[in-house]
Amino acid sequence: QAKDVGKNTTRIFTRDLNTRIKRRMSLEESLRNAIKNEELEVYFQPKVDLRTGSMAGAEALVRWNHPDKGLIGPDEFIPLAEETGLIIPLGRWVLRNSCRTAKAWMNHGHQCMQISVNLSPKQFTQKDLPQMVGNTLSDTGLPPYALELELTENMVMQNVDEAINTMHRLSNLGIQLSLDDFGRGYSSLYYLKRFPMNELKIDRSFVDDIPSDPDNASIVNTIISMGRSLNLRVVAEGVETKEQLSFLKKNNCDQMQGYFFQAPIPALDLLRLLQRGKSLIFS
Ligand code: C2E
Ligand code: MG
Ligand code: MG
Ligand code: MG
């Protein structure tokens, strides 16, 4: 009898696994076609300057308009893209699309807007990354200073000497570099000092519940003053309340991003927001 149970379990397990593999394969297949079928769209979320209340830039965040499943967020397909290598053409597409969009904003007179694009670990280790970025800039006509690439700590700590070398090659193009989700990974101050970075983005988990959570409040303050002494711009992500806003303003954080100001929106909507030209903080 025990044998029978075992058999059934195996059968159930196999069927389960098959379904999972099939589902994954079909997702992979449709993701493969997504670029070609123009199902991907880059949304943009404003980065707000705390002193002026104006938009200093925007982060590019990819979305997938799936024909059956509707709008899918990056957390649901970036990992699959990373595993399968699809992230390379996908990332290239996002970068090109974002640079083209930022150039269009410039042409509308919004010269000060900087565009931030996320890189994945696999993209970061591609030998031709700096060359690809350089080509994208010259093809789209976007000046290098208007582009920022977001890296994460774990990505750059993987093989740190090589990573520093890549960061220098990127930075030599004249673009800026940001360390995203800062505080979640394991980079040390020793390395932070050696990285050719321009910006630190405080991870959302620390911005949560400030100032009422005293631990988070002091972590955020420590990151802000550390950033200041290393000459880095400090950005807080995930700002949702006016209490968070006033805490960050009081403590001289440079920029912030979050639903309190604006969720990520399509490029044309962001342009409309820019053209209204109102302060995002006091309006
Ligand atoms: P991230 O780079 O840390 O981006 C910030 C995420 O926080 C975005 O989620 C954004 O929509 C969300 N967010 C913004 N403000 C708030 C807020 O006030 N509250 C909360 N709870 N969340 C907020 P999203 O768009 O789902 O992206 C998730 C992650 O997917 C990104 O995290 C990034 O790591 C990755 N990702 C997005 N686009 C790309 C891409 O083009 N390439 C790569 N490699 N990764 C991407
Ligand atoms: Mg990011
Ligand atoms: Mg982040
Ligand atoms: Mg994140």
Q: Order of strands side by side in the largest beta sheet?
A: 1-2-4-5-6-7-8-9
Order of helices and strands: HEEEHHEHHEHHEHEHHEHEEH
The percent range for strand residues is: 15-25%
Name the average pLDDT.
92
Rg result: 21 Å
- The counted number of beta strands is 10
What small ligands are held by the chains?
A: ligand C2E, magnesium ion
Overall geometry: globular
Distance between the termini: 72 Å
Low-confidence stretches: none
Number of helices: 12
Major sheet: size, sense and barrel closure? 8 strands, mixed, barrel
Quaternary organisation of the protein chains: single chain
Percent helix among the residues?
Answer: 40-55%
By secondary-structure content and strand pairing, the structural class works out as alpha/beta
Protein name: Diguanylate cyclase
Domain EAL: 24-278
Could you provide a short overview of the structure?
With 283 residues, this protein is α/β, with parallel strands linked by helices. Helices cover 49% and strands 19% of the residues.
